[in-house]
Design brief:
By secondary structure, the chain is an all-alpha fold. It has a single domain, classed as de novo design (two linked rop proteins) (Up-down Bundle). It is built from four helices and no strands.
């Protein structure tokens, strides 16, 4: 039974991803503190934050917040890919993060589609 956003698997997994992004980004070059490091962290935090806020406010705003979370997820995947291409992140770590983000994206899309018409 889902009583709050904390009960949503997508929120739990996106929190895990945000923690992982923070840990990984600690090892990024100091020159990226205000660049990719900051952007990746903001995008990663935005995903569970929007799931939580959307669930809390409900109604039409729930769908809106899920769309924002989907957008943040796409931003994060782009930033991870760029970090990989710039060789700031190694292939294995980037692929791990991309796999997590892709799974979360699928879950967000599924949740968005599953919302009852009353949520539209």
């Amino acid at each position: 039974m889902i009583h709050s956003f904390r009960d949503l698997t997508v929120w739990q997994k996106s929190m895990d991803l945000a923690v992982r992004v923070y840990r990984v980004s600690e090892k990024m070059p100091p020159s990226e503190v205000f660049g990719l490091t900051s952007q990746m962290r903001r995008s990663a935090v935005s995903i569970p934050s929007n799931v939580a806020e959307g669930k809390a406010v409900g109604g039409q705003r729930y769908r809106r917040h899920l769309k924002i979370a989907l957008g943040s997820n796409a931003e994060l995947q782009t930033q991870i890919e760029l970090s990989k291409r710039l060789e700031i992140l190694n292939q294995a770590i980037a692929d791990e993060l991309l796999d997590q983000a892709s799974e979360i994206g699928r879950m967000l899309a599924g949740l968005y589609k599953a919302l009852p018409k009353s949520e539209l």
